[in-house]
Structures are given as C-alpha cells and as structure tokens.
Write a structure and sequence with these properties.
Structural class: alpha+beta
Shape: elongated
Largest sheet: 6 strands, mixed
Number of strands: 6
Radius of gyration: 46 Å
Strand order of the largest sheet: 3-4-5-2-1-6
CATH superfamily of one domain: Beta Polymerase, domain 2
C-alpha cells in the first residue's frame, strides 16, 4: 500500500470532502463532454505540494478541449460558487490547466497528453477512474452512516444506565406558608342605626307659645 493511499483512506476533513465533491463534479463534466481516458490522481501529500488531486482528460481537437474546460468552470461556479485561481492554455487549446488550488484540472489533446505523460511523472499518485472515485465516496458515506447508527443505541443505553444508577431524590413537600393560609380580611360591617334613636329637640313654634298663653 502506498503512502498516499494510506492517508486518503483516513477520515477526510470537511475541506477534503468539499474538494472531493468538486473533483467529482468536474469529472462528470468530462464524461458528459466525451473526454477520453479521464483519470483522477490522488496525490501523495508529501509529493504534491498544495494540491490533493489532479483531474486529467483528453480531447480529440482544440474545440472539444475548450468546451470541456469552459463547462467545468461554468458548472463549478454555478453549483458551488467556486472560481479557478488561474486558467492557462485556453487560447491554443492543446493543454488547458484550471487551477483550483486543492485540485488541478488538465485538459489535453491526446498527443500532448502522451508527450507530457503526467501519470508517469506522478508515480506516487493513486490513479482512479471517475467510477472508482464515486464508489469510494459512496463507501465512505455508507460507513459514516453505519457508524452514526451504531453510536445512537450506545448513547441511549448509557443514558438509561445513568438514570438507573442515579439515587432517587426525595420529593419535598411544599412548605405551608402562613401568608397563603390567611384568609382575606373581612370588611367591617357598617354600624346599624339603633331602633330607638334620640329625637332631636325641636323648639316650639311661636304660634304654639301664643296659644298656650
């Protein structure tokens, strides 16, 4: 097993997952545009510098090479909002290079690809077809899903065991509050007027005093 193969079989980081999704989309464009002998090179980190992958494909003529490169750039921009850091060779169409930093796309004319032979120069890289690359991504996703499912019952059992071993707490009765027990104060009843009320003294009128005389 190669060094690069060992590393890329480790758990990928979120940034590496994003890079793989971009490479997968670019490889799909190569297949749609009838690119020939499309290969994804998983580069050895010790030998690759900044990039993680090379995507290499061939075209039969300059027009097809430009069409493949343009469609890759358009689809990654539209679907992921990602732009290439630099684009080279588009004018001649013999070797178009799209540099996305974490991966690089090489669109060759068939004779130019045979001449430069990138696959031979990157001996430590692990070559994959788009189908093999997709199969690896699906296998990683399936493994992650199974791991998440197995962790869920373990966490549930641990939580139930923790509750079982936890001593039961005594339920405290609410203290009787004196203020709550007090009834609202009754209003004082109005005083009743006594049945026998003192008659007010009335002065006799002047007519009565005259008659009495």
């Amino acid at each position: 097993m190669r060094t690069g193969e060992t590393i890329y079989r480790m758990k990928p980081t979120p940034a590496q997952k994003q890079t793989r999704a971009l490479v997968q989309a670019a490889a799909a464009v190569c297949e749609d545009k009838k690119g020939l002998n499309t290969r994804i090179l998983a580069l050895d980190p010790a030998d690759s510098g900044l990039s993680d992958f090379f995507l290499v494909t061939s075209a039969t003529n300059e027009r097809q090479a430009v069409a493949i490169a343009d469609e890759i750039e358009l689809r990654l921009k539209r679907d992921f909002g990602v732009y290439p850091n630099s684009v080279e060779g588009r004018r001649h169409g013999e070797w178009i290079l799209l540099d996305y930093v974490d991966f690089v796309v090489h669109v060759f004319l068939s004779e130019r690809r045979a001449f430069y032979d990138i696959e031979r120069l990157r001996k430590s890289a692990r070559p994959l077809t788009p189908a093999e690359f997709d199969a690896e991504l699906k296998a990683e996703l399936k493994q992650k899903t199974l791991a998440a499912r197995t962790k869920a019952p373990i966490k549930a059992r641990a939580a139930s065991a923790k509750l079982a071993t936890k001593p039961a707490t005594k339920i405290k009765k609410p203290a009787k509050r004196a203020a709550a027990a007090k009834k609202p104060a009754r209003k004082a009843a109005p005083r009743r007027k006594t049945a026998v009320a003192k008659k007010k003294s009335v002065r006799p009128s002047t007519k009565e005093t005259r008659r009495s005389r």
